[in-house]
Design brief:
Blueprint: H1 2-26, E1 80-85, H2 87-90, E2 92-95, E3 100-103, E4 119-125, H3 131-142, E5 148-152, H4 155-159, H5 164-180, E6 185-188, H6 196-216, E7 219-221, H7 247-261
Parallel strand pairs: 1-4, 1-5, 5-6, 6-7
Antiparallel strand pairs: 2-3
Helix pairs in contact: 3-5, 5-6
């Protein structure tokens, strides 16, 4: 009888050894994915520092705050801004990746989580419009109830060879409308132009805007300055059509505007 028990024990031991071998061959009986130690973990894609910024919807949570930023401003403490202007205001930037005008306006970064200084209250802007059209739309913009009216215009006036005095007269009409309802106004300088003659007119209009804004107590947002080459025209890579900024240039415009808005008593 003892030999029977010894035989059964031997068979059991053999089954245990076989079982361990099968388990080692097949692995654990789980549906969880296995990690391959020999395969490197995927690295997140990093943006090319020399590439243009992507044309994206409103960005939030930017990890690259402007050096000019003086600290985080809670959204509820920011004034509500309405934007009045042309195709650049409306969001016409040129994405060189696709060669298309895209909806990525310069002011988006004014609204984001880290550099934002205003809240979005609306926009009255159309492609190809001059400051004369904007003057006629001033009350429509003000009807949106902003704490601040931001005007970006004059590029199409320059295209039509309108003299600086006419641009200033139109801006004055807009300011008069804003004053009538107690809304402060901010005005932007013009971007450069690729054509030397048009660029000279752009400089003349921007200079006139600076003088007028100082005299009238209008906040000046020098959005054109960071885009301008000291030798004339656009800085390299900031415009692909000589008229509209690229998304990268739009970021610089927003940062220039944010820096100026932080210096004036508008609750920011």
């Amino acid at each position: 009888m003892i030999w029977v028990w010894r035989g059964l024990a031997a068979v059991a031991a053999l089954l245990v050894v076989v079982g361990i071998g099968v388990a080692a061959a097949t692995g654990p009986t789980t549906t969880a994915p296995r990690l391959d130690a020999s395969a490197p973990s995927p690295s997140p894609e990093l943006p090319d520092p020399g590439a243009e910024a992507s044309a994206l919807p409103l960005p939030t949570g930017s990890s690259e705050p402007s050096p000019a930023a003086t600290g985080y401003i809670p959204e509820e403490d920011r004034p509500v801004a309405v934007f009045l202007g042309d195709s650049i205001t409306r969001g016409a930037t040129l994405d060189t990746t696709y060669g298309d005008v895209t909806e990525w306006s310069w002011f988006y970064r004014l609204l984001d989580d880290t550099e934002g200084v205003v809240r979005y209250g609306g926009m009255v802007a159309e492609n190809g419009m001059t400051t004369g059209w904007m003057a006629g739309q001033a009350y429509n913009a003000l009807a949106l109830g902003p704490d601040l009216l931001i005007v970006h215009g004059g590029t199409n006036d320059v295209s039509g060879e309108v003299d600086p005095a006419s641009v200033i007269a139109n801006l004055q009409q807009i300011k008069d409308a804003a004053d009538a309802v107690g809304v402060p106004m901010a005005v932007c300088t013009l971007p450069p132009r690729a054509d030397p003659a048009a660029d000279a007119r752009s400089i003349a209009v921007s200079d006139a805007i600076r003088v007028w804004a100082a005299a009238e107590g209008v906040a000046l947002l020098d959005t054109g300055a960071p885009l301008r080459d000291p030798l004339g025209g656009w800085r390299e890579g900031y415009s692909a059509d000589g008229l509209h900024p690229t998304p990268t240039a739009a970021v610089l415009m927003a940062r220039a505007a944010a820096e100026a808005l932080r210096q004036i008593p508008l609750g920011v």
